[in-house]
Design goal:
By secondary structure, this protein is α/β, with parallel strands linked by helices. It has helices at residues 27-30, 44-55, 68-89, 93-104, 113-118, 131-144, 160-164, 169-172, 200-212, 228-244, 250-260, 267-274, 276-289, 303-310, and strands spanning 13-15, 36-40, 60-64, 107-110, 122-125, 150-153, 175-180, 189-194, 216-221, 324-327, 330-332. It is built from 14 helices and 11 strands. It is globular, with a radius of gyration of 21 Å. It is an enzyme of class 1 (oxidoreductase).
Length: 334
């Protein structure tokens, strides 16, 4: 989960000691009329979004979080990723370092959501997956952002309209979902989600911006799970039911889907990668209140998953889920 952003945090902004890129180098930004974005939440997702915006789209980025510690962690994620990218692209260490510094010079770190919002064209929220936390943040942003600013949430499971209800009617016309996938620098897809009030020019601006980030955008209305999770989560839960009924083992289900369907991971490996707590959170939300999914057999909770989460076994991030992980990227089949 990404850190929660609280209102009225003390302002503190830092910038890496490198020169801003000249205006000519920011020419790609003119294609979508976005010169600066704010990304609120400096966790894995927020850091990844900030990176592709600064690197691929060449726009100025303000990465915002509640503390310098969170910001420094986010910055270190971006820096490590960029170093890997430019090391592969350039055999000259000095040239790779120069390119890294050029991208990092476009990223400003800040603990002030209000200051960041006041100078941004697009604001992307990437905080904890909690409806009330997101609503509090967007109310704060609505009061501070310029009238033209576009708001976007990176939620993977919450209805965009429910989040947008926190802002003014005028701002809802400039509100949408931008669902990136983890790890953001590598994953090409972005789901661009429209609510009923989203204006066409706002939607087109977000499509252009994501393309400038090197992504492939797909469009979806504000339906539970959008496209990918709406298909993926029921698939994972059907795999759970197969194992719960004793029809097959998790190992055989994973092998079958990799070799028979060509998937890079089986459903149990995928749940461990995503996080068992995250998978449960998404499905529980749909079962309790998802439009068209509430109380459905399709979203019925899994006792097997519930028990693992209750035991603190969340998958790779906790060291154990359906499989035990003895090292980075390594698993021990149970």
């Amino acid at each position: 989960m990404l850190p929660r952003v609280k209102p009225h945090v003390a302002a503190m902004a830092t910038r890496r000691p490198a020169q801003w890129m000249p205006a000519a180098a920011l020419a790609t930004a003119a294609n979508h009329n976005v010169k600066q974005i704010s990304v609120i939440g400096a966790g894995l997702m927020g850091a990844g979004i900030a990176q592709v915006a600064a690197h691929q789209a060449a726009v100025r980025v303000q990465l915002v979080d509640t503390s310098q510690a969170h910001l420094q962690k986010g910055e270190s994620i971006i820096l490590a990723s960029l170093k890997r990218i430019f090391k592969k692209k350039s055999a000259d260490a000095a040239d790779a370092a120069r390119q890294t510094d050029e991208v990092m010079a476009r990223i400003t770190l800040s603990t002030s959501t209000e200051q960041s919002a006041a100078s941004s064209d697009v604001l992307v929220e990437a905080i904890v997956e909690n409806l009330e936390a997101k609503r509090r943040l967007f109310r704060q942003l609505d009061a501070a952002a310029p009238a033209h600013a576009i708001f976007a949430s990176n939620t993977s499971s919450l209805p965009i309209a429910d989040i947008a209800a926190a802002v003014s009617a005028t701002r809802r016309a400039q509100f949408a979902g931008l669902h990136f996938f983890n790890p953001v620098p590598q994953m090409k897809l972005v789901e661009v989600i429209r609510i009923g009030e989203t204006q066409p020019q706002v939607f087109e601006t977000l499509l252009a911006l994501t393309k400038a980030m090197g992504k492939v955008p797909v469009s979806c209305k504000d339906t539970p799970g959008f496209i990918v999770n709406r298909l993926l989560v029921p698939y994972m839960f059907e795999a759970l039911r197969l194992v719960e009924r004793g029809d097959a083992t998790k190992e055989d289900v994973d092998t079958a889907m990799k070799l028979g369907a060509g998937y890079p991971m089986g459903p149990f490996e995928l749940m461990d990668y995503v996080g068992l707590d995250t998978t449960k959170f998404i499905n529980d939300g749909w079962y309790q209140s998802g439009k068209g999914l509430q109380g459905s057999k399709l979203t019925e909770p899994s006792p097997l998953l519930d028990q693992l989460v209750a035991d603190g076994k969340f998958g790779r991030k906790s060291g154990e889920g359906f499989y035990a992980y003895g090292g980075v990227g390594a698993s021990t089949k149970k």
